[in-house]
UniProtKB/TrEMBL annotation:
Membrane topology: Multi-pass membrane protein
Classification of source organism: Bacteria, Bacillati, Bacillota, Bacilli, Bacillales
E.C. no: 2.7.13.3
A family per Pfam: HATPase_c
Root EC class: transferase
Protein name in UniProt: histidine kinase
UniProt key word Hydrolase: no
UniProt-listed InterPro entries: HAMP_dom (IPR003660), HATPase_C_sf (IPR036890), HATPase_dom (IPR003594), His_kinase_dom (IPR005467), HisK_dim/P_dom (IPR003661), HisK_dim/P_sf (IPR036097), Sensor_HK_Regulatory (IPR050736), Sig_transdc_His_kin-like_C (IPR004358)
GO molecular function, one term: ATP binding
Location(s), subcellular: Cell membrane
Ranges that cross the membrane: 52-74, 94-115
Source species: Cohnella boryungensis
Length: 395
């Protein structure tokens, strides 16, 4: 009955054909092969240890043999010329044994002193490997200590590693800050859009109130769109793959055209435009430089109070072009000046939010100017308003 039960059990598990048996033996062979492979991998680290242990034992025996040979030779000379009356006595054998182990001990001490720098260097290499593993896991707060007594030519390598870890840590902080700023800037208009969209669902809203809510939603949507465009533009510029079409053109004509295109903005605030443009020709990407001038103009118009003045002065000097944009606004505080060109920085967050700014315009200005080999600075004019200076090479 047991013999009859086995085929039925086998048929229930593997079917009636021999393919089930082949699959069964195939799976068993693969599992056994995988088990043997894992066992070989686990046994690999022990093979070098066995070799090192065997080498240490062999070296110890060679050291004993060499020490005994030297000790026997020395005692033979001593008893032959100074103590011949003792001959081969137990005292001579005892002194040979003591001298053998003394020579072996001091030889090991000398070898240890000789290999001490090598051991310290090996410890340093292991420490550096551990630090690299920490870097690969995202921990950038690592710092290797240097000791000039045994580091020697490796000191520049340690300094470079510490500098790399510091830069990676700074980049990680910037990345976290960038993500935090983007989340904050996106959350603000989304909250407004969601709140006013829920308010529009009320049936008893007055037409004027409903229209105002719709306008707010439209304004916040445009703000999100501008922020997205600026982020994409800034990312493209920083990737060094943005199209760059450099050609010669008249910078003064470009500025006049852009000032006229912004006329509805500065006319609405009754601003006075003090324009002094010399005839200057530069070699640059006209579309990218147009973005620079528009961002500076919009920034000045935004922060200049009604009835104020905006000054734009263009002049050529020794090998370069200087453009200065000033306004009669409140200016920049000393705390804000070092951070004006950082992404998402706002000297007056409340005012910038109400005017739809995202804090990316001046970052784009700085990146484009640096792409053209120029510089941009921000400070306060003598009358108290903000002043932005752009320096560009003539050729």
């Amino acid at each position: 009955m047991k013999r009859e039960g086995h085929p039925r059990q086998h048929r229930r598990r593997h079917g009636n054909s021999t393919s089930g048996m082949r699959r069964c033996w195939g799976n068993f062979y693969r599992e056994n092969k995988e088990h043997r492979r894992r066992m070989r991998e686990l046994s690999q680290p022990f093979k070098p240890r066995r070799k090192v242990l065997a080498l240490l034992i062999l070296s110890f025996h060679i050291g004993i043999a060499a020490s005994w040979a030297v000790a026997y030779s020395v005692m033979d000379l001593v008893f032959r010329y100074w103590l011949p009356q003792y001959g081969h006595t137990p005292l001579r054998q005892y002194l040979v044994v003591v001298l053998t182990f003394s020579l072996l001990f001091y030889a090991m001490k000398l070898i240890r002193l000789f290999f001490a720098p090598v051991r310290r260097q090996m410890d340093w290499f292991l420490e550096m490997i551990n630090a690299m593993k920490q870097l690969s896991r995202g921990n950038f707060n690592v710092n290797l200590q240097t000791n000039p007594r045994f580091m020697g030519q490796f000191s520049p390598l340690v300094d470079s590693f510490n500098e790399m870890a510091s830069e990676l840590s700074r980049m990680e902080e910037m990345r976290q800050e960038f993500i935090s700023n983007v989340s904050h800037e996106i959350q603000s208009p989304l909250t407004s859009i969601g709140g006013f969209a829920r308010a529009l669902q009320q049936d008893d809203l007055a037409p004027e109130t409903r229209k105002r809510y719709v306008q707010i939603i439209e304004t916040e949507s445009k703000r999100l769109s501008r922020m997205s465009d600026n982020l994409l533009k800034l990312t493209s510029l920083e990737s060094n793959h943005h199209p760059f079409d450099k050609k010669a053109y008249r910078l003064d004509r470009q500025l006049r055209h852009l000032i006229l295109s912004c006329e509805p903005l500065w006319q609405a605030k009754e601003l006075e435009m003090d324009v002094d443009l010399s005839e200057v020709t530069i070699a640059a990407d006209e579309d990218l430089m147009s973005q620079v001038w528009l961002n500076l103009l919009h920034n000045s118009i935004k922060f200049t109070p009604a009835g104020g003045t905006i000054g734009i002065a263009l002049a050529g000097e020794a090998g370069r072009v200087r453009l200065v944009v000033t306004d009669s606004g409140p200016g920049l505080s000393q705390q804000a000046l070092p951070h004006v060109f950082e992404r998402f920085f706002k000297a007056d967050p409340a005012r910038d939010r109400s005017s739809g700014g995202s804090g990316l315009g001046l970052s784009i200005v700085k990146k484009i100017v640096e792409m053209h080999g120029g510089e941009v600075f921000a400070d306060n004019a003598s009358h108290g308003g903000a002043r932005f200076t752009v320096l560009l090479p003539l050729s």
